[in-house]
């Protein structure tokens, strides 16, 4: 066997360097957050407070506490307990400390920390904020200092506080939202921006806008529109009316403000203002998240903002801690606790995991977006169930790369008419992107959202372009599928026709047609999520149908993601993928073969390829990799130090195949095998075949002190990994068995799934490892094989 080239290649690898080549390492973001929290804790005073501004007693302490909560500091942390105890002593709605800023920040803290314990304080603050909204003069609808005029900064904080309280279920007078929306409409500049100083129209001129106030204006109008119930669907009696989208003044103004931000975008300064950079970044994060944009113009706002904050941070080592802080130029931001808190709010909230992206596709403008709040509403309902923060985005399929698409584990494609572009070449290109996305572990939801259109026919055409192979067809989703019961069992009235594609290891696509479907689309029901609240004036039967639609949506998301989501900075990796050769084994490439047999060897066609790709990236191998599907009797078998054996069904080797594998093992080769989704039929067949090939040997569990399970060969520590089991939760310890041949491991076998995990599938009904753990196991086995 010709191992000399491979052995020399691996001797030259620096085993300690197992990080991807990155422009922004994800751990740098987490270190900055941890260091910022450490700085705030170091600045906290004995009473649980921070150094305050005389005008707003409790405001700085509330801001620091809010930042620490968003960064994940638990409620039982001693310093968090002290901070909350201090804030509970303050009543910012009465006496000399009366303040819109403090009341608003305190309300946001209580809503995020322990809303049950602080329910009375939240209600007190909400009542005060509703009572102190300006009702007269040019600033009607705003908030301000208790005895002064209203201003957009106070107005922004008050609206954010009321918004968080309302999300907990507190009823807010509809006139509050309406009046606030009118204030922001009245104060928008002609160019789409907002300024802090609003000049009366009779002066004939406007104050120049700024980025911080424009972000505030856009978000405030979004909140006003949402709470004014400007939904794109309606209910009459027990009848649902989908696709009622209409362009109104609020949405036009939001679009106008977004255009101004596109033309003036920056993360190194507050556009239009020489000061308040960190206040602006705090607003920029909120604007980007609530408008569901990854890009503002050509700018990835979160990535660029992270780079700016990492570059401008101040780091100090104090005893055994690293303290990270920021300092601004304005009078308030000169106080490091304020600037650091605002920076932490950008980092912690901007990194919320991306749950799903809504695809912009098709010839007709906005046909993909009949219900503008559907995906965002579903994400909010999912947040409540999963007890975590999530975000969503919209993305143009034509402009996006596959890597862009892969930032979201789920894509949502909807419309009334065909999503296919008219240009045949664009059809092929966009179908190829979607196929590549699914090949790499993505999940697609496609839905016809309006009756009477051509979406159903167009999507079936798109599907056939994506999957020209005859074996891939859409089939009705069976009633035993986890989608119907993953988190909530869907009642009979919530059932609807769903077609699905089983591809590789699991379902990766669901299609919800309008044909033969008496129910409103899921998109319509998600759009109307607010109408299912207890106080909504609708029959119980209507609310049940809305809740069933939300439940089904969350079930689909749970199945697609298994609740395992990435923070945004985990997508910052930029290393280029090595290019694999289509055929022929070339010297200097990392190589392995997938053995062909009759037990489902192609069920996970990308598993080995993904493992080799990830190994090349992790080990920084410049020559790429080679993999092929190989007949066991091929003479090329002996060119591979390691071969991959996967399957899901029963199989039998021929006598010639058995003899070839026996010779391969005797010459030092390694068989790396796994049962896809822990298939018992494949497991039984493999054990029988190995007993025939090696009658004097048997599979035994790898001992806990086996060097292969440790970083001994340059890989990972596998001793602390655990396997996922849908019935019994997680089972500690890696479960690998093996057969030793001539003093070394000749067979390493996982009776639990590795292949589907390597394809990035996280199916709830597939017993095995997470994608990250499966890659670590595979890399350790590769490293052992080449020693």
In one word, what is the shape? globular
Please tell me how large the radius of gyration is: 29 Å
Give the quaternary arrangement of the chains: single chain
Total DSSP E strands: 24
SSE class: alpha/beta
Summary of the model, kept short:
With about 775 residues, this protein is an alpha/beta fold. About 40% of the residues lie in helices and about 15% in strands.
Characterization of this structure:
It is a single chain. Helix 14 links the parallel strand 9 and strand 10. This protein is an alpha/beta fold and 787 residues long. Helices cover 39% and strands 14% of the residues. The two termini are 14 Å apart. 48% of the residues are buried. The strands form seven sheets. Strands 10-9-11-12-15-14-13 form a seven-stranded mixed β-sheet, sandwiched between helices. It has a seven-stranded mixed β-sheet with strand order 17-16-18-19-24-23-20, with helices on both faces. It has a two-stranded antiparallel ribbon with strand order 1-2. The radius of gyration is 29 Å and the shape is globular.
């Amino acid at each position: 066997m010709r191992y000399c080239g491979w052995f020399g290649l691996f001797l030259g690898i620096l085993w300690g360097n197992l990080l991807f080549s990155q422009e922004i390492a994800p751990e740098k973001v987490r270190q900055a957050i941890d260091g910022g929290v450490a700085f705030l804790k170091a600045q906290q005073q004995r009473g649980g407070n921070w150094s305050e501004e005389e005008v707003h007693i409790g405001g700085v302490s509330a801001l620091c506490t809010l930042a620490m909560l968003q960064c994940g500091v638990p409620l039982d942390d001693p310093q968090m307990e002290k901070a909350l105890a201090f804030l509970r002593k303050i009543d910012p709605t009465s006496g000399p400390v009366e303040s819109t800023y403090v009341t608003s920040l305190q309300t946001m803290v209580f809503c995020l920390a322990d809303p049950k314990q602080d329910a009375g304080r939240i209600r007190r603050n909400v009542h005060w904020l509703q009572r102190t909204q300006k009702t007269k003069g040019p600033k009607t609808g705003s908030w301000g200092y208790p005895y002064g005029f209203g201003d957009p900064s106070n107005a922004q904080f008050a609206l954010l506080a009321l918004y968080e309280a309302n999300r907990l279920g507190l009823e807010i007078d509809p006139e509050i939202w309406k009046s606030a929306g009118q204030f922001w409409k009245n104060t928008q500049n002609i160019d789409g921006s907002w300024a802090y100083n609003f000049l009366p129209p009779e002066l004939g001129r406007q104050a120049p806008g700024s980025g911080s106030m424009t972000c505030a204006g856009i978000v405030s109008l979004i909140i006003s529109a949402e709470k004014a119930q400007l939904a794109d669907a309606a209910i009459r009696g027990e009848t649902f009316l989908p696709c009622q989208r209409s362009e109104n003044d609020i949405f036009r103004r939001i679009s106008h403000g977004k255009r101004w931000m596109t033309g003036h975008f920056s993360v190194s300064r507050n556009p239009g203002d020489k000061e308040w950079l960190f206040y602006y970044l705090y607003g920029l994060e909120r604007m980007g998240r609530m408008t569901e944009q990854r890009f503002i113009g050509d700018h990835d706002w979160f990535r660029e903002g992270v780079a700016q904050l990492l570059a401008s941070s101040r780091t100090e080592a104090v005893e055994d801690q690293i303290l990270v802080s920021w300092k601004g130029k304005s009078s308030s931001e000169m106080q490091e606790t304020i600037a650091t808190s605002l920076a932490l709010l950008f980092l912690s909230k901007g990194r919320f995991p991306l749950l799903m992206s809504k695809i912009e596709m098709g010839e007709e403008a906005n046909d993909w977006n009949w219900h503008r709040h559907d995906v965002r509403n579903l994400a909010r309902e999912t947040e409540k169930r999963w007890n975590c923060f999530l975000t969503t985005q919209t993305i143009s399929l034509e402009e996006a790369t596959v890597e862009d698409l892969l930032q979201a584990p789920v894509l949502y494609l909807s419309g009334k008419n065909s999503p296919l572009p008219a240009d045949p070449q664009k059809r092929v290109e966009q179908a190829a992107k979607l196929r590549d996305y699914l090949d790499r572990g993505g999940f697609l939801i496609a839905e016809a959202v309006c009756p009477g259109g051509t979406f159903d026919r167009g999507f079936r055409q798109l599907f056939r372009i994506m999957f020209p192979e005859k074996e891939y067809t859409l089939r009705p989703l069976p009633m035993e599928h986890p989608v119907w019961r993953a988190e909530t069992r869907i009642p009979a009235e919530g059932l609807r026709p769903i077609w699905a594609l089983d591809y590789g290891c699991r379902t990766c696509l669901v299609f919800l047609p309008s044909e033969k479907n008496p129910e409103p689309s899921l998109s319509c029901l998600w759009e109307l999520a607010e109408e299912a609240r207890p106080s909504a004036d609708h029959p119980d039967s209507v609310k049940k149908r809305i809740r069933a639609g939300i439940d089904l949506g969350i079930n689909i998301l749970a199945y697609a993601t298994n609740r395992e989501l990435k923070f945004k900075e985990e997508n910052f990796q930029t290393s280029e993928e090595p290019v694999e050769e289509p055929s022929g084994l070339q010297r200097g490439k990392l190589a392995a073969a997938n053995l062909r047999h009759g037990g489902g060897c192609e069920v996970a066609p990308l598993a080995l390829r993904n493992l080799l790709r990830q190994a090349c990236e992790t080990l920084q191998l410049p020559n790429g990799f080679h993999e092929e599907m190989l007949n066991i009797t091929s003479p090329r078998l002996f060119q591979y130090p390691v071969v991959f054996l996967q399957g899901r069904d029963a199989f039998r080797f021929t006598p010639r195949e058995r003899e070839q594998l026996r010779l391969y093992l005797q010459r030092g080769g390694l068989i790396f095998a796994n049962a896809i989704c822990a298939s018992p039929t494949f497991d039984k067949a493999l054990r029988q075949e190995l007993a025939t090939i090696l009658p004097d040997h048997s599979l035994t569990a790898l001992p806990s002190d086996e060097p292969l399970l440790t970083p001994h060969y340059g890989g990972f520590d596998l001793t602390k990994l655990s396997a996922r089991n849908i019935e019994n939760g997680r089972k500690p310890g890696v479960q690998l068995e093996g057969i030793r041949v001539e003093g070394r491991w000749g067979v390493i076998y996982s009776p639990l799934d590795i292949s589907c995990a390597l394809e990035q599938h996280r199916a709830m009904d597939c017993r095995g490892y997470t994608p990250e753990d499966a890659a670590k196991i595979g890399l350790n086995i590769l490293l052992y094989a080449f020693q």
